[in-house]
Amino acid sequence: MLGGAFFAQAVASPIHPTPAPPQQHVLLISVDGMHQSDLAWWTARYPHSALARLVDGGTEYSHAQTTVPSDSFPGMVAQFTGGGPGTTGVYYDDTWNADLLPAGTTDCKGVKPGAEVDFTEDLDKNKAGIDAGQGLKGLPGSILKMTGTPQTLINPRTLPVDPKTCKPVYPHSYLQTNTVFEVAQGAGLRTAWSDKHAAYEILDGPTGTGIDDLFTPEINSNANGYPAGNDWTTDNKATEQYDTYKVQAVLNEIDGYNHQHTTWEGTPAVFGMNFQAVSTAQKLPSSDGLKGGYSSTDEPGPLLQKNLAFVDAELGRMTAELRKRHLDKTTTVILSAKHGQSPTDPTQLTRIDDSTLLSGLDAAWKKAHPGVRNLVAHSVDDDGMLLWLTDRSKVATDFAQKYLLAQSGTGTDINDKPKAFTAGGLSKVYAGAAAAKYFGVKPGDARVPDLFGISQYGVVYTGGTGKVAEHGGAHADDLDVPLVISGADVPTEVVDTAAVQTKQIAPTILSLLGLDPNSLVAVEKEHTRVLPVS
């Protein structure tokens, strides 16, 4: 699978094409889980759809890939910084840092470093509420009244602590690079974005103020009209309802208002949102009487087809509003995805309970080294495996690698029937210095996983049968996402087959706005190219 060497080669020499006249606005739309194959399937069957019009009206990059690991958090960060995890320091939304202190630490003297960095819904003052604890009345109908500064909705006691200052580390200050929003704002331009957790205030960048209007309704809150504990992702119809709130926020911003539609601010120079409905349609075995996932290789099943139609219709609403407000000639629309989803071939699905693998690893380690603590400090296992260890020595990382690759057992297939697996479901494990090299950082880096495992195709680590797909790994199904740039000054009906990466979106946005792409720290460090759009 593609490793660090590929990415270094792919961005070795910066290419900055002669820019077109600067656009006044760039609207970025991310469709979580969407593959390039999904876009091709849809546009071939619906050539007059909003997605097809977007493709025909611009440049389609048919071989675009997101970053590794293919998680929402580093994927979105890459699109707005121009850098991968080794540069931004963001490997997943829930990781480990060997230098920070545990959340809630108030007296830092003598506290041993090593802490979970949980930038999920767990940060919310109230993760059960779609307003993340703001206390709005009349939810969810009143959700557009939610604040545009979600930092105020984060409980500081849930944040890891900096041992030097003994203060909580907010997501924005954890980011090691600046963002498109900060550069645009520094040039006097207005910025806005909408995403799924308050923790996405990481996109504000190190200044903490890069986004003027950040709308983050909590997707993992209790869904309206569903049993307690069921969030907006557990039923696809609910996910669609959730997505429409963010669409309305974008419509309000196109009209020149803030997302709440209470004050006139002018249409942002950089703004947009992410869709979640396609992702849940890919992951749920069924919902609303329709089968989820894929019917056969790259053939969307009934639920996924329904959600591609949903995204198409909502995108059509946004582009129609641009035309209505006479902004279509001065706005470039970029369509992409934070990540794909694997597998797209349902016959290859193998669900494995990772908790059994990791508890076995801990037991084996302690048996071989009596008196020591558990080896696994933290893990993130979706369809890849990221492990942080309590012992980071070569002895320990080699032990973990050897143990995992020696494991066999039985999981379940797409029909919930037993299915054997070998090598822990892994095809490759980068351990210790090899993991650091894979991500382009020095061994011993406080953030890098001690093991990065690339799963065999079709493997999903889950303790049940509630998923038929996942993301986070490094298979083509995780990485191959759509990338389309469409606007008044973008060549139409162009298909660019060169290998490109979604992190190239960041410098491209700045180039479209007439700003310097090299003002992004990650672009300078990784020599990230501007996408050829002229």
**Number of H/I helices:** 16
Judged by helices, strands and strand pairing, the structural class is: alpha+beta
From the 3D structure, determine the CATH topology of the largest domain: Alkaline Phosphatase, subunit A
Low-confidence spans = 1-20
Organism: Streptacidiphilus fuscans
GO molecular function, one term: hydrolase activity
InterPro entries: Alkaline_phosphatase_core_sf, Phosphodiest/P_Trfase
Protein name: Alkaline phosphatase family protein
What's the helix and strand layout?
Blueprint: H1 4-10, E1 25-31, H2 36-45, H3 50-56, E2 58-65, H4 72-81, H5 85-88, E3 94-97, E4 115-118, E5 161-162, E6 167-168, H6 171-174, H7 180-186, E7 192-194, E8 213-215, H8 236-254, E9 270-275, H9 277-283, E10 286-287, E11 290-291, E12 294-296, E13 299-300, H10 302-324, E14 331-336, E15 350-352, H11 354-368, E16 376-381, E17 384-389, H12 394-405, E18 409-412, E19 418-421, E20 426-431, H13 433-438, E21 451-455, E22 459-461, H14 476-479, E23 480-481, E24 484-486, E25 494-501, H15 505-512, H16 521-526
